[in-house]
Design a protein that fits this description.
The chain is an alpha+beta fold. Helix content is 20%, strand content 28%. The strands form 2 sheets. A 7-stranded antiparallel beta sheet has the order 3-4-5-9-8-7-6. Strands 1-2 form a two-stranded parallel ribbon. The radius of gyration is 17 Å and the shape is globular.
Amino acid sequence: MVFVINCKKLNMKTCLTLFVLFFSSSVFAEDISEFQIEGISIGDSLLSYMSEEEIKKEIEYNLRDYKYLNNPKLFREVYMRKKKGLYDQLSFFIKSNNSNYKIYFVRGMINYEEELEACLNKKKEIIDIITKDTTKLKTNDVTSILPLDSSGKSITYATNLIFKNSDNITVSCSNWEESFRKENNYTEGLSVILSKGEVMDWLSDY
């Protein structure tokens, strides 16, 4: 395993990326804000990484994706689509009507279209790395139907690493039913997620 550390403040942040993972050997981070994906942490302002115009365009574009939830307007999703790094895309959840655009959820995604086995292998590799160095997080494996597809043929395979306060690190593989994926122009594959517990509760409320 090759470790490449690119955090500016190693004693304050733990960098979590797809192939790059570092934990302090002496102090385990007790809070989700101590982790980063591509240098971005929970609690940061999204304005540090995108313009307000870009954020508003993304909010509008993604409105329909969470219409199945009981409270679909509580959080809004924003994608960072044009970027260079280990991930093909990043996405974020921010609360509605928050002028600072505080980040409650950050996800790094890599496409594995029609490559579920390869995705699951990479997912296991990442989980093995995390759990080897951390023992204080509760682990929960979940296989569930993706609710946007009414056929019931689209599945996500997730492992949740849960903090005491219900914040999560989640590594998952999504596998959309192929005709549904093409019709909606969706990608599928690996996601590495840092999330506040309230976002995960919101996403499961339908």
